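Table S2 (text version). Query chain:
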Amino acid sequence: MRTLRTVFALLVAVVTISNTLFGQGMEKYGGGARFNLNEDKSHYIRFITWAQIWARYQQMNPGSTVNSNPAESATDIGLRRGRFLAYGSFGSGSLFMFHIGINNQTFLGGGAPGEATGPAKKPQLFIHDIWYEQKLVDKALYLGFGLHYWWGISREANASTLNFLALDAPIYNWPLIEATDQFARQYGMYIKGQLFEGAYGRLDYRAHINKPFKPGAGLSLGGAQANISGTANASTNVQANYNPFNNTLSYGAYLTWQFLDNEPDVLPFEVGTYLGTKRVFDIGFGFYFHPEGSATTTNGTIPGNTGVRRDSITTHDQLLLGFDMFLDLPFGEGDSKSAWTLYSVLYKYDFGPNYIRNIAIMPTAGLNTAPGTVTSLNGAGAGYPHLGTGIIFRTETGYLLSKKIFNYGGRLQPFATINYIGFDRLADKGIMWEVGANYLIEGHHAKYSAMWRQRPVYRTTDAAGNWKLDPDGGSKGELIFQAMVYF
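Corresponding structure-token output:
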């Protein structure tokens, strides 16, 4: 009993000291505990932590196995993300960021970088972000160094994982994921700021010069299981992959014109939906350029695989472009208040001739290697072609219902997405669609989400060696439930 009284007294003391010395502790919206370290609050540190837990039913791709057993479907529960983030300032326009966590732990694999499947238990914590930033010109120019997330290409390439509209990101918004980046980060330097602000809005920018990571052999990397399709294009006998001998820097930038409310740019993470707290209309353009980032051979061997020599490859520049639009509008007041969110993006990716890559999130399946087993371009489990040379178009939209329509302990936000996959290596262009809803108990801080996804499945090729939809069923589905909490 005496021990319990001691613990309770210590807790009261901590809360009292925090409120007295550090000012406001918890911010209602945006989350995190902020501790002010001086009276004018210019010196502070803030902590944010969050978790996203998934339960899934998946219709498996042809030839999939689970625990070495052939499987047409499977269910599982796993950890999509578990993160801890701290950032702060010691004044004079400084900012420091430190962000660690794990991703994609299932019963089969721990999701650590460098392993598609591996020890499922006790996965490795790793650094997501660590960088230092300094203000040089107020509002106009900030300079930062480190392992950072200040990217080009698109808004979704800089997406926050705390406030998605749909249940999750589509992954092709991170086109280098675990290939030449570390979970969408590279080491480098960046600048950011505002180029113009006037009666018709504000023009923001972010730009970087990075040193990409060395790509791994075969790119079977990370919690996002990935593979390059097994043979080169039959008509040209070439298929690009990441250049294993590359030693150049990469360059990128993203410009966004903000027509209505201004969005904060303290951190790189872009909001997916504001739930009626802002009026936002943004148009953006971004690019990523990596000289000699890809390569091909002339004998059908895919660069990156064992035995490819430097003198046997032809190099290709990687140029990735994005054009996007974001709209988030509240309607009404009080219990009648609702909000509509719309995001559309067009990507044009050039990784070199015929490049294509599959990704399966939180992989739990293998491929049946028995003779005569029917397999597909998609690979094992619920993977499908996420990345390639060609175009991708995505639109997602959602509507936050008013409390007069739905007010049962929280808010309801139905959403839907449509995704067009137009890679050069696909004879049949693909459509992937999603429908679902968020049940928001305390905004994004505590919510449940459910989503059905229907993905294309490719199993045969045409005379040129380009992939066609499975004639026995061109798509498969998966149902995902998510529980999320952050503070």
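Notes on Table S2: The chain has one domain: 29-486. The two ends are 31 Å apart (CA to CA).
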